[in-house]
Amino acid sequence: MLFSLPNLLTMFRIALIPGLVGAFYIPGDLGHWIALGLFVAAGLSDFLDGYLARAMNLTSRFGQLMDPIADKLVVAAALLMLVHNDTIGDVSILAAIIILCREMLVSGLREFLASAKVSLPVTALAKWKTTVQMIAIGFLLAGEAGDKVLPHNTEIGLAGIWFAAVLTLYTGYDYLKVGLRHAVDADEAEVRRMRAKNDFQR
Questions:
Q1: What domains are there in the chain, each with its CATH number?
Q2: Which of 110, 137, 125 is nearest to 171 (CA)?
Q3: At what angle do helices 29-55 and 5-15 cross, to 10 degrees?
Q4: 1, 58 in Cβ contact below 8 A?
């Protein structure tokens, strides 16, 4: 099951990250197009591994663990390099920070809730956030090369990143509420259990 096609696609997505980072060091338009091509390939593999896992009944614990991690690694690598080469600069860095912090928050919440055997399903709005985010990053990876094909390409990408950041705040707050509610409920249940134990011992 480890080497099923969906899992191989997930590992392929992670393997693309060094190439994506390396493309930023290729001078001229070629580097932009290679970075965009690798990012699109990562996005397509993300769609395919989920589709194939469901269609071929090849879902696995490994896939459930690594698929979201692979997605977050690709997005984090792209955003960090876009900040590094000043495509995302000035106040727009805040939007990138919001997106990255939300990814870490949701990962932590999923880990906590998994230990409590509570699922944290992806909402429809979160899926829209991911779509907007991926499209915006694609525009930004094209960068100056994309500006020659589509005027204001970079500005469109930056606007998309800010829109994704706004959706990120909203969906992140929704996930945080779920996590906090279960954390508070668990703490209250533990307090009641300890009180009952103490009363019994008396």
A1: 5-201 (1.20.120.1760)
A2: 125
A3: 160
A4: yes
Side-chain half-sphere CA neighbours of 42 within 13 A: 31
Contacts 24+ apart (CB under 8 A), 175-184: 175/105, 175/106, 175/109, 175/120, 175/126, 176/105, 176/109, 178/109, 178/113, 178/120, 179/109, 179/112, 179/113, 179/120, 182/112, 182/113, 182/116, 182/118, 183/112
Count of Cβ atoms closer than 10 Å to residue 149 Cβ: 9
Determine the 3-state secondary structure of 3 from DSSP: coil
Q: What does the pLDDT look like over 32-57, one tens digit per residue?
A: 999 999 999 999 998 888 778 788 88
- Distance in angstroms (rounded) separating the CA atoms of residues 64 and 86: 34
The two structure tokens encoding residue 111: 């880990």
d(CA 162, CA 175): 20
* CA–CA separation, 59 and 65 (whole Å): 11
Q: What is the pLDDT of residues 64-122, one digit of tens each?
A: 778 888 888 999 999 999 999 999 999 999 999 999 998 888 777 777 766 666 666 67
Q: With contact defined as beta carbons under 8 Å apart, do 48 and 154 qualify?
A: no
Report whether 46 contacts 86 (CB < 8 A). Answer: no
